[in-house]
């Protein structure tokens, strides 16, 4: 009985009418032959109908679009295309099939429409297998007009084409941008062929938030590149993450330089909870809060220091 139900789907994929007849026979057999319970027979009946529908759908039997006759304009276009192909020389057909820069699957469709047999291979020296053609882009092609064949050489859609078929992919390499302003660094990276939309930014001070790309570009002359990853002359492939560690300062800031390491210093030293003023005098007997003062003078601190005692002199 299960084999008969499976036969419904198989025949329905080739002929909807034949599948329908077998489905009726299967339904009768289900209710007469096997000693199944009522609910099992109802389920088998519904299953036979479902199998017929699925089989017919997979086989294209229910595709009305596939059985529609082309309209007058479509027939005229097809006739004109056939006449043009018949009157064209092989060289003209080969030239028309040039699909450099297009997805490989589209290029092969156009070539087959022109009457060519297609082949494809990896345009890079790695000689990788091409599985999903929609994810590859045509770089080179070679046609044989006499044999009516075209061989496409392609790379993955996010990869650059090599200078010649089978050559190395010309991945960009990182320039040295350490010490440059953000605007200058962004210009150099773009000229090197690196996509700025994939660029990651980070701050180098604990008391400064990481800027967005828009914020860094707006104040691009104040943001400076302190660290870069990867290093200079590193090949940047499609999976390489390029990041810049930025510091920000102007001529009026107390600190105007990059730290020795990331996330280790404060742009404003007084923001460091462990910071102590170098200008304080005396012992700690008169201190309150975080400053060190004497009984006669509250001491001297920089603006922004934590818990400065009353009467402290602020110096900028």
UniProtKB/TrEMBL annotation:
- Determine if Kinase is one of this entry's keywords: no
> Which of UniProt's keywords are assigned here?
Membrane, Transmembrane, Transmembrane helix
Biased composition, class Basic and acidic residues, residue ranges: 64-80
Q: Where are the transmembrane segments?
A: 6-32, 39-60
Comp. bias regions, Polar residues: 307-316
Quick one: where's region Disordered? 62-85, 258-316
Under what name is this protein listed?
PASTA domain-containing protein
Q: Which organism is it from?
A: Streptomyces globisporus
Higher taxonomy: Bacteria, Bacillati, Actinomycetota, Actinomycetes, Kitasatosporales
């Amino acid at each position: 009985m299960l084999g008969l139900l499976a036969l419904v789907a198989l025949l329905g994929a080739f002929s909807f009418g034949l599948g329908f007849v077998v489905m009726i026979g299967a339904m009768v057999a289900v209710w007469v032959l096997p000693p199944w319970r009522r609910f099992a027979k109802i389920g088998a009946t519904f299953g036979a109908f479902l199998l017929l529908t699925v089989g017919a759908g997979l086989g294209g039997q229910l595709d009305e679009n596939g059985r529609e006759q082309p309209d007058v304009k479509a027939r005229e276009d097809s006739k004109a295309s056939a006449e043009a192909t018949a009157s064209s020389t092989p060289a003209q057909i080969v030239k028309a099939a040039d699909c450099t820069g297009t997805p490989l699957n589209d290029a092969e469709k156009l070539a087959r429409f022109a009457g060519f047999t297609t082949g494809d291979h990896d345009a890079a020296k790695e000689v990788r297998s091409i599985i999903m053609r929609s994810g590859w882009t045509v770089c080179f092609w070679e046609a044989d007009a006499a044999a009516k064949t075209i061989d496409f050489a392609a790379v993955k859609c996010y990869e650059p084409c090599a200078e010649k078929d089978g050559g190395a992919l010309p991945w960009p390499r990182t320039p040295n941008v350490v010490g440059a302003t953000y605007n200058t660094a962004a210009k150099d990276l773009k000229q090197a062929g690196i996509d700025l939309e994939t660029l990651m930014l980070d701050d180098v001070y604990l008391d400064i938030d990481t800027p967005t790309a828009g914020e860094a570009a707006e104040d691009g002359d104040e943001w400076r590149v302190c660290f870069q990853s990867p290093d200079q002359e590193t090949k940047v492939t499609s999976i390489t993450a390029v990041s810049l560690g930025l510091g920000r300062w102007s001529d009026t800031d107390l600190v105007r330089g990059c730290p020795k390491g990331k996330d280790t210093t404060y742009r404003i030293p007084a923001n460091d909870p462990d910071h102590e003023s170098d200008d304080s005098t005396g012992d700690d007997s008169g201190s309150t809060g975080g400053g060190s003062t004497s009984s006669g003078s509250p001491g001297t601190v920089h603006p922004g220091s934590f818990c400065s005692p009353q009467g402290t002199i602020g110096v900028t």
